[in-house]
Amino acid sequence: MLRLLFFSLLMMGGLPTQAQAIFEVQQAEVSFFSNAPKELIEAVSKSLAGVLDVQRKTFAFKIGISSFKGFNSPLQREHFNENYLETVFYPEASFVGKIIEDDDLLREGSYTVRTKGKLKIHGIEQERIIRSTIKSERGVLHIHAEFSVLLADYNIKIPMVVNNKLSPEIKVSVQITMVARK
């Protein structure tokens, strides 16, 4: 899956072929939570794939929606996949774009950057700017970001029967460890 994503970016001219500048996801955790009046829903996935070209400041990440685990019950997870995110039709979410700041991410240090790109969820792309922290140490990049997703922006409908159990604004937290591509 990651190789296909990388190859696609090469074909579009989005990434150079210089291996030392390309970082891949080694480890990741993406979590979300909905804090509604009658219910708190949390889920986590460790299945994020992606690449980052630190010279061109371009990136592409994607995650399988059905990889999220947690929830309050198996039925709630089933409703998440079948009724709300419709994973049969929209199996993945993605974020593809560019880092706005011109920091040298190969130099050790901690950087607060803005990432600008297309966040695609439920088949709908929205241009987003997401603030992230990137810590570079010993050739490894540690990335952290937190942002919100408004369900209405991605045409995810909340039935009236669960209106008080699902927040219209979902909080997302992302932790990524990336290593240079060999």
Describe the structure.
The protein is mainly beta and 182 residues long. It has one domain: Beta Barrel (Lipocalin). The chain has 2 helices and 10 strands. An 8-stranded antiparallel barrel has the order 1-3-4-6-7-8-9-10. The chain is elongated. It starts with a helix and ends with a strand.
Task: Supply the number of helical segments.
Answer: 2
Which structural category fits the helices and strands?
Answer: mainly beta
Outline the biggest β-sheet.
8 strands, antiparallel, barrel
Taken in chain order, the helices and strands follow as HEEEEEHEEEEE
Low-confidence stretches: 1-7, 9-19
Tell me the count of domains: 1
Quick summary of this structure?
This protein has 2 helices and 10 strands; from the N terminus they run αβββββαβββββ.
Helix and strand topology:
Blueprint: H1 2-11, E1 22-35, E2 40-45, E3 49-53, E4 58-64, E5 69-70, H2 74-84, E6 92-99, E7 109-121, E8 124-137, E9 140-150, E10 169-180
Antiparallel strand pairs: 1-2, 1-3, 1-10, 2-5, 3-4, 4-6, 6-7, 7-8, 8-9, 9-10
